[in-house]
Design goal:
Elements: H1 3-10, H2 14-18, H3 56-88, H4 93-105, H5 114-146, H6 152-159, H7 163-183, H8 186-189, H9 194-221, H10 226-234, H11 240-259, H12 262-291, H13 296-304
């Protein structure tokens, strides 16, 4: 028997079809590892997760689809977030104005309450974004994976045990973005820097919201180390859409408050916060798809997994 024919009989399967038994360098075919995703498989048509090659248009199509299908489920979340956003969230320097009054009422101990007032402010100011992102993730992933909108009790059970770390992270980053306007003011630095300072602080707020959108999604779905994982995912997918959504949260409510008043500003803030939450979730899903196999079903299963596996 010819040696080449003997090799053909001994080696079976796809190696026979791909390897050349007469190759003087004895090269064989490269076989995919069991369970490893194929880079040549087309992306599945997922209702929430963009394909690996999706650009801003494909990303926007997914965001629009989520908003259209989940609108009825997002309205209660927006109403819940509107309460702290309208009645409790104020400017940090309002606490400085209130300190003398507290000092008179408490016999000189009011100033000792000032740090506690600031802590309370930062905690409450983070609550609307926490509600929007957590509620949106539960509603959107459930709808995309199961085809139905979840009841409020189901939404609560999906995210309740992750609200504390999510709230802590958002309050920490809120401390950065909302304390700087108190320390860096045009009165202290001069009117010449007023415009550049406003632009710089707006860009900082937009960048923080972009990062915390991914960070919040990691905390909710993966339950792992947040900042490092979010930094990694930020390099896996385009961020232009999420940056625009974050910019809308930063700018539009302020413009509405300036020209239309407080109630309209609250409405605009709630709408832009919900849009930011959907944008963050879709961007996170896009990064997970670029990293490996990820679908709305797999992300929903991660979100709904028991707290203690």
């Amino acid at each position: 028997m010819d040696p080449g024919e003997d090799v053909m009989h001994v080696v079976a399967g796809p190696v026979v079809e791909s390897a050349d038994p007469f190759d003087p360098e004895s090269r064989t075919a490269e076989l995919a590892r069991p369970g490893a995703p194929s880079a040549f498989l087309p992306d599945p048509d997922d209702p929430l997760v963009p394909s690996r090659s999706a650009g801003l248009t494909g990303w926007a199509r997914k965001v629009g689809g989520v908003l259209r299908r989940c609108l009825a489920g997002l309205v209660p979340i927006g109403l819940l977030a509107a309460l702290p956003m309208h009645f409790f969230v104020g400017r940090v320097d309002d606490t400085v104005v209130a300190a003398p009054a507290l000092s008179d009422l408490a016999g000189g101990f009011g100033l000792l309450l000032l740090p506690l007032m600031w802590v309370a402010y930062f905690a409450v100011s983070a609550l609307p974004l926490v509600i929007c992102l957590a509620g949106t993730a539960a509603v959107a992933l459930t709808e995309a994976a199961r085809g139905t909108l979840p009841r409020p009790g189901v939404v609560w059970r999906l995210v309740a045990y992750r609200l504390r770390p999510l709230w802590v992270w958002f309050a920490v980053f809120g401390l950065l973005t909302q304390s700087l306007p108190l320390l860096l003011t045009a009165d202290r630095l001069g009117t010449a820097v007023a415009a550049p300072l406003a632009v710089s602080l707006g860009l900082l707020s937009t960048g923080v919201l972009t990062f915390t959108g991914l960070l919040g999604s990691v905390v909710l779905i993966e339950r792992g180390p947040g900042p490092r994982r979010a930094t990694h995912l930020s390099s896996m997918a385009p961020l232009a859409g999420l940056v625009l959504a974050s910019l809308a949260v930063t700018v539009l409510p302020r413009l509405a408050d300036l020209f239309l008043g407080g109630p309209v500003s609250t409405l605009v803030a709630v709408v832009t916060a919900l849009g930011w939450a959907v944008a963050a979730l879709v961007t996170y899903a896009h990064a997970r798809r670029a990293e490996g196999p990820a679908t709305a079903v797999s992300l929903y299963e991660e979100l709904s997994a028991p707290e203690f596996d």
